[in-house]
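Here is one chain, start to finish.
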Amino acid sequence: MSLVFGSAQWLAALGEVLASAPVLSGEGQIRLGQLVVGEDGSTRVAYTVELVAGERPRLLGAGVDEAEVTLVESEAAARSLVEGASTAGALLEAGQIKVRGDANALIRAAGLLEQVAKVSGGLVERMTPPQKGLP
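Its structure:
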């Protein structure tokens, strides 16, 4: 099945991928939100994941209310990430991703984030090419 980034099916698939991921090694924890906003400033995609060393990563659900750190990006930046044209680090450096909350928490959780990036690659391969205007 082909998935559209940000759709209910994509969010469910993300939850499944995270639930079947290996237990995270290392130290630390983070509740990380992702918020994709449209050109008009409206929320297009919002979800939060929880990463805790010694546990499997998990999707907390739609929305970013439970996030301690939220990455905020435009639809264009999200498409760039989904297509693999850019990395989150490059977009952060370019100012195309904004950080809400404790940016140092991202640094402390770098090892956990790397582990999750490795297991979520299969989800990207199942997606349809992003279209202008996310669900």
